[in-house]
Amino acid sequence: MTANAPATAGGARPASAPVNLFGLDRQQLRDAFAAMGEKPYRADQVMQWIYRRGKDSFDEMTNISKALRERMAELFEIRTPELVTEQVSQDGTRKWVLRLDGGNAIETVYIPEEGRATLCISSQVGCAMDCSFCSTAQQGLNRNMTTAEIIAQVWFAARTLGGDFQNERVISNIVFMGMGEPLANYNAVLPAIRILLDDFGFGLSKRRVTISTSGLVSFMDRLREDVDTALAVSLHAPNDALRNELVPINRKYPLAELMAACRRYTAGKDRKTHIVYEYVMLDGINDKPEHARQLAKLLAGMPAKVNLIPFNPFPGSEYRRSSRDTIQAFAEILRAKHILTTTRKTRGDDIDAACGQLVGRVQSRQKKRLRGIPVVVQ
Ligand code: SAH
Question: How far is the CA of 132 from the centre of ligand 1 (A)?
Answer without folding.
Answer: 10
